[in-house]
Amino acid sequence: MTVLDLKKNLGQLLNVGFWGTTPEDPWIKILSRQIEEGKVGSIIFFGYNIQSPEQLLTLTSYFKSLKAPFPLLISVDEEGGKVQRLSSQKGFTDVWSAEKVSQTFSPEEAYGYYEGLAQKLKQFGFNLNFAPVVDLNPQRASKCPVIGALGRSYGSDPQAVISYARSFLKSHSNLDILTCLKHFPGHGRSQTDTHLEFSDVTQTWTEEELIPYDALLKEVPCIMTSHLSHQQWGGKLPLTFSKDFLTGVLREKMGFSGVITTDDLHMGAIQQITGTEEAALRALLAGHDLLTISNNPNSCSALKGFLPSPDGVEEVLRTFTQALDEGMIPTKGLQESIERVLTLKRKISSG
């Protein structure tokens, strides 16, 4: 790609949340233009974007009808349990949490159960599910407030976690729904919630937490990182910004060749440190390929005055373009990131 091509395709690296439920809503009109201009390559739905099965299908069908330069990733966090957007309250069938699935089904039975989830996602227009969680739930009195305490883990045994996660991955893959392991390098021993605040796991994290990733990374197209800090790799900064960790460990040491995506850059652990544009640039330089900007105030509820805006996309792209012009972004690394995202998109366009 030429530098001009790189600039033109920077939007493929953005996974953007939005406000609205119909194609006529003002934010969605702006987002639609950004998608068709190639400024946004992926969108993510939250609960407030979903009112009913009929409304959801109308909206995802509308997004698919847009004349985007590349296939649009239409994503959602649909783990089950506490983290599901297509709930029974809105006319859908609820899905059990990872914890309940592992307590109720064998891994083989879980495959059939998760087929139903994958079918639901396909029926309503999604092609990327940011799941499953492969964080371990350590056998200790104090569970991670955002993982174990919410039933989001399959358990404390890495081999069991691998088995259930593999059933999840296969059930989705067979229906051409992309998946994503999270939250690398392992969030289960954290004692704080990165939606709200800084979380240092230097004293609690163990290499055991890498076992599910090492076993499954050749079976999944995408891995999501966490905003945790570990002084071995990133000092006191979130690993989101650590090139030594993401490129050195996940890419080079472990050999992952798929898409690396950030967790939400609007979460409190990031926003307490820096603004969205700077966070996105630093995450890109660290080795991420897909950058999630949720525009969801719930992601950083601890911060006052957070005002999401559709104009944030333009600001991030201006920051990227300026950094590229100034030589801050290596063109080779940027081209590789764009190519990895486009390779991901070819999987849905041929599915």
Report on the structure:
The chain has 351 residues and is of the alpha/beta class. The chain has one domain (3-349): TIM Barrel, CATH 3.20.20.300. The protein has twelve helices and nine strands. It has helices at residues 3-8, 26-36, 53-65, 98-104, 107-123, 158-173, 211-216, 243-253, 268-271, 276-286, 312-325, 331-349, and strands at residues 14-17, 42-45, 73-76, 128-129, 178-179, 181-184, 222-225, 259-261, 291-293. The strands form two sheets. It has a six-stranded parallel sheet. Strand 6 (181-184), helix 7 and strand 7 form a beta-alpha-beta unit. The two termini are 26 Å apart. The model has no long low-confidence stretch (mean pLDDT 92).
